[in-house]
Amino acid sequence: MDKLQHANQLLQWREQRQLSAEQLQQASGQFPLQPATGLWLAQANLILLFGTVVLLGAAIIFFLAHNWPFMHHFTKFALAAGALVLSGVIAIRSAPASLVQRAALLSATILTGALLALIGQTYQTGADIWQLFASWAALITPLVLLSKSRACYLLWFVVLELALGRYLMTQSELFWLLAGAPMILSLALANLVIMLFAEFALPRLRVQANQTLVRLAALILIAPLTLGAGLAAWDNGYQLNLLVYLPLTAALTLWYWRQRRDVLILALLAFSAITVATAMLASLLESADDFFAMNFLALFVIGASAGTVIWLKKLLPGSSKKNSLSNHSELTTQLQHASIIDAAKAQQLQIVTSPWWLQILLGIAAWIASILIVGSFLGPLLALADNNPVRTVAAAVLLAAAIWLTSRKQEFLQQMAVAIALAGQGLLVYVIYDVSGLNHEIARYACAVISILLLLSPLNQLHQRASLSIALLCLLSLVSSAPMLAVVSSLLALAAALLWCGRLKWVNLSQAKTIKSLLEVTTVAALALTLFGQCLLWLDAGYYRLDHQLDMARALYSALGSVLLISTVFWLSRLATVPSRLALLTITVMLCILLYPASGLLVSTALMLACFYGCSRNWYALCLLSMLLAISQFYYSLQLNLLHKSGILALSGITLLAAWLLLQRYQRRLV
Questions:
Q1: What is the DSSP string of 80-104?
Q2: Nearest-CA neighbor of 107 among 49, 24, 35, 20?
Q3: Fewer Cβ within 10 Å of end Cβ, the chain: N or C?
Q4: By C-alpha distance, which of 74, 143, 137 is closest to 107?
Q5: Contact 78, 24 (CB under 8 A)
Q6: 515-518 contacts: CB < 8 A, separation 24 or more?
Q7: CA dihedral over 512, 515, 516, 517, signed as positive or negative
């Protein structure tokens, strides 16, 4: 994926006008700006094989979950156990650590859970569901260790977390996060064991690219630790949580600072400390004047977060060679050696914005600080003069302050600018809502217009995304026709696919930044709406006035999704040979026919292909997640029974398997 990351980074630099069109053209000779044939084949191998596993595994689960009045339970057991044994046989006969073996072991881990669920459902042993997950995790442990696969380990971690969460819920009538200090502490200590395993055992087990698993384990450890320590500021019953939090986070910080220099985990620990410290300060200032307390807390959050970001950005160049920043520095070095950029430009390109995960943490802190500051000033003002002229002036002041903050270069102030600007927008919309006689539709139209007009302001790209999202949500909320919503969803998906596929063309336009913001918002909206389209029957049809239009809407979602997928494959395969193109289109048409009721899966697949062509690994991964969500949603689709859905998924999995076998044959002919 390094080539894809390099291409994406070059395109981002051009979007931000850090590279000229001529420099991008020169760089394209050394770093292709579109996925090459070899990269497409590698991803096709991965997607087809693991797609086969997921679809066939889901088909078996759906089949077993179907209400079989005449099928003996021993027959069900034989089917589930037979599928599990077949996966094991394939894994044994496959080459060690091969893609086929990893896929077979993933299938075995999924089917083990299905078999356990079937046993529990048949005999009604009275065991709680946490015991099912605990047994599942225990039984698949040898398979996971053998697989050396991140997918298997990720499933294992998820099953362990589900077992822990369900067990803690049996100890209280409330959700475990609200149930008390001992539960939060117990979960944190259990997650500590998982993190220690991920940190020290996975490298010795030769699990490749295990950094993601370590970071995930760190997140699920730090979250309950922070919650328990923060509550200790208000409730003495959580003092033990705080006593555990202090030495444990100190030890983790020292380890990841001195030994491994993982900046993401250090960022989580640092912002966790800010959260706990803010909670303690808020507790100490509980009896102080509200104006003083809110502004003091805001200043503390601003100062602590800004200092943390400065410290973390100093650590980034020395962090792990596997992170994106190292790839980024490597790319600038190669561009400089190729005489595409000079030393000054290379140094300028290396001064980049913070990674996305640091921007999220920074954004949360900045928005909290903004809310405190705006609330401390705006609340008393509106209380003293609660009328529309005062609200309008206050909104104008907030927008002016946001524009002024945008001119500052600090990332924290940029985030605050967005929060303050949105507060100004909200206040202005409320004025229009009040003047219009509490007319909801006028307020939504006004919100959309204001958000679109603010795209012309000098506010930053984050505010562009926020404004576009707000405008789109307001306009979508005005749609009460289910067929129209299906058409709008398909048009958004089409626009996203076209923009991703045409990224190399619009990247040189003067409005490339705005187009990129529009592309990201459109992609998220298309994925969300297409998943929504699969669950229309979950709605209260009478309330949403969709009762007589649902069938037409579902047909539109599926038909337009099929057209989008076929069109995307048709365009992306335009350079392939005629036999290869015909094979691709034939397989695509078969999948569209089989998966016609699963419109979310069709649209997510089309957008996944477009994102891969557009060289964006993160959006490609988001589309894969959307595909998994679409399959899980398909389980609850009410227009088909589980047996029908099982057959659809099974035939789709067999089609993907046939496509994978054809691909293997094609690759052998190339050698």
A1: HHHHHHHHHHHHHHSPTT-HHHHHH
A2: 49
A3: C
A4: 143
A5: no
A6: 516/15, 516/461, 517/461, 517/464, 517/465, 517/468, 518/468
A7: positive
Q: What is the pLDDT of residue 306?
A: 77
pTM of the full structure:
0.83
Q: Is 17 left (phi over 0), alpha (psi -120 to 50) or beta?
A: left
Rounded to 5°, the CA angle 372-377-378 comes to 95
Q: How many other CB atoms are found less than 10 A from the CB of residue 323? A: 16
The span from the CA of 369 to the CA of 416, in Å, is 8
Dmax over Cα atoms in the chain, in whole Å? Answer: 80
State how far the Cα of 605 lies from the Cα of 283, in Å rounded to an integer: 50
| pLDDT tens-digit readout, 10-66 | 888 888 888 888 888 888 888 888 888 888 888 888 899 989 999 998 888 888 877
Dihedral sign (CA 179, 181, 187, 191)? positive
* Per-residue pLDDT, 324: 47
User: Is residue 22 within 8 Å of 635, Cβ to Cβ?
Assistant: no
N-terminal to C-terminal alpha carbon distance within the chain: 22
DSSP string, 605-636: HHHHHHHHHTT-HHHHHHHHHHHHHHHHHHTT
Does position 176 have pLDDT exceeding 70, yes or no?
no
- If one counts every other C-beta atom within 10 angstroms of the C-beta of residue 84, the result is 19
Whole-number Å distance between alpha carbons of 297 and 422: 21
3-state secondary structure of 615: coil
C-alpha closest to that of 165 among 179, 145, 144, 151: 179
Contacts of residue 464, Cβ cutoff 8 Å, sequence gap at least 6: 455, 513, 514, 517
Closest CA to 275 of 293, 249, 301: 301
Q: Rounded to an integer, what is the distance from CA 337 to the centroid of its chain?
A: 36
Q: Both tokens of residue 400?
A: 């002016």
Instruction: Give helix 411-435 / helix 440-453 axis angle, nearest 10°.
Output: 150
- How many other β-carbons are positioned within 10 Å of the β-carbon of residue 50? 20
pLDDT tens digit sequence for 568-621: 999 998 888 888 889 999 999 999 999 988 888 999 999 999 999 998 888 998
Q: Provide DSSP, 150-198.
A: HHHHHHHHHHHHHHHHHHHHHT-SS-GGGT-HHHHHHHHHHHHHHHHII
Mean pLDDT of the chain: 82
Q: How far is CA 240 from each of CA 183, 225, 234, rounded to the nearest angstrom?
A: 12, 11, 13
| SS3 label, residue 545 | coil
For residues 504-530, average pLDDT: 89
**Mean pLDDT of the 417-425 span:** 80
- The token pair at 276 is 């706990």
Residues contacting 386, CB < 8 A, separation 6+: none
| Whether the Cβ atoms of residue 419 and residue 367 lie closer than 8 Å to each other | yes
